[in-house]
Amino acid sequence: MAIGFSGIGAGADWNSIINQLIAIESQPLDTLRAREVKIEQQISDYGLIKSAIDSFKSTVEQLTTATGLAVFSTTSSDDSVLTVSADENAAVSSYDIVVDTLASGDKLASSAYADSDTAVGTGTLSITVDGSTMNLTVDGSNNTLAGLRDAINSATDNPGVSATILNESGGSRLILTSRDTGAANAIAVSFTDSDGNHSDDSGLSRLFHIGVGGDGLAEQVETAQDALLYIDGFTVNSASNSVTAAISGVTIELVAAGSASIGITRDNTAIEERIQNLVDAYNTIMDEFDAMEVSSLGRDSSLRRMRQGFVDILNQTATVDAAPAYLFEIGITRDREGVISLDSSELADALVNDFDRVSQILTDATTGFANRFHNYADLLLDAGGVIEAKDESLNSQMDTLQNQIERQELHLVTYEKMLVEQFTALDQTVAILQSTSSFLSSQLSSIQNS
User: Fold this and answer.
1) Could you tell me if 176 and 278 lie in one domain?
2) Strand partners, 95
3) Residue 296 and residue 45 in contact, taking contact as beta carbons nearer than 8 Å
4) Which candidate, 42, 259, 401, 438, has a CA 20 to 30 Å from the CA of 280?
5) Contact, 145 vs 173, CB < 8 A?
6) CA-to-CA distance for 52 and 297, rounded, in angstroms?
7) b/e per residue, 82-93, with b = 16+ CB within 10 A?
8) What is the spatial distance between Cα 180 and Cα 132, in angstroms, rounded to a whole number?
9) Max CA distance (Å), the chain
10) 8 A C-beta contact, residue 102 and residue 237
11) Residue 125: which domain range?
């Protein structure tokens, strides 16, 4: 804190004296500010630890239930007939499938008109799909193919049809297509024709009056139907070519009629990857703790206890069939530095020989290692947990410290003002004394010379 002081006394360096006094008085403030920097760093470091634990928790969460290891690969003997995929609800199995018929939607072509702007009559057009009906008023504002197309597509009560216009050599037609496949999605059209005849080939009813083909009247282009297939000889009907309800956890995408065999097997490569992710996550969180031990948290007992909690879990056992089970059984071991690793061949053997045991070692709700790690991370991160308590403590310390700093800064301002006033008075006193001394010296000199 630099002091500006212009003395009038006998050349004394009052500024230097005041600055030295201020420096001495500022030492407690310097200590407080150094403490403030340290706490700020501790708060930041705890934020890093919290983020690392949260990331660890997210990684191991995938293995907290048996579905975490339910990863399957699938094969189809003929992808031109069907393809197959499986989710966590599937099981190892194989099936022979014959695809007889693909599911299709309904498609109607209207009678032909000169162009899309030709008037088609007026009245009410009703379209029904799977029990839902829309009633469209047809009047001078929309009684063309283009007007009907736009009105149908924008209707809020559209029952599930798309309207388009096809321009062919014989004229323009309004095409209605069901949005979904399956027999239930057949399109039914009816009219209330302004001409009084609701089903003939004139007026509005001409629009979808079915002809005999080639006569320019409406035609059924495609008929809605369910897919028909046989799985191991059992009949399966599906409204969609994406068959999801036939085999639990398995989706069969039908491509064409024909036959194919499918297989569902465990994807051990994907399973190993998930377990490797757990191993990597553990090593990463240990690295984070180690890094913090040489940071502002080096002497933090809470940090050491949190770290030890992860190590303690690694030293525990799971329970499978009422007996202890160990991580080394699935290829996970720890070296002298505390780093764990996964032996792929050991894990592969365990998956082949006793998959259920592997699953329980990791995913058992009570003793599974993934659940123990996940629950411990939860405990640390939860409201009222160690990290929140530490964060609240550090922030409380910071608030107290900042209040102390503010008071100390105000004290220094007051102290500086006092010093300036005192030394100003001192300087003036010295000046008076110097003046008096000079006067007396002059008088004595005059007396001596007289």
Assistant:
1) no
2) 262
3) yes
4) 42
5) yes
6) 15
7) bbbbbeeebeee
8) 13
9) 156
10) no
11) 107-222
Residue 143 tokens, joined: 């009684």
**Which residue type does 396 have?**
S
Same domain, yes or no, for 99 and 244? Answer: yes
**CA 188 vs CA 83, 137, 240: distances in Å:** 33, 17, 20
Query: Quick one: 366 and 273 in the same domain?
Result: yes
For residue 301 the two structure tokens come to 């007992």
In a domain, 77, yes or no: yes
The type of residue at 282 is Y
pLDDT in tens, 51-105: 899 999 999 999 999 999 999 999 999 999 999 999 999 999 999 999 999 999 9
Q: Are 330 and 346 in contact (CB under 8 A)?
A: yes
273 and 418 in a single domain? The answer is yes
Q: Which two tokens stand for residue 81?
A: 């007939």
* 450 belongs to a structural domain: no
Instruction: Provide the domain count of the chain.
Output: 3
CA dihedral defined by 395, 400, 406, 411, rounded to 10 degrees? -160
Is 438 a domain residue? no
Residue of 109, 106, 105 whose CA lies nearest to 215? 109
Place of tokens 């966590």: 88
pLDDT tens for each residue of 284-332: 999 988 888 777 676 778 888 889 999 999 999 999 998 999 999 999 9
Structure-block tokens of residue 230: 């046989």
One-letter amino acid at 57 equals: K
Chain centroid to CA 357: 32
pTM here?
A: 0.71
Scan for tokens 């405990």, then name that residue: 379
152 and 11 in a common domain: no
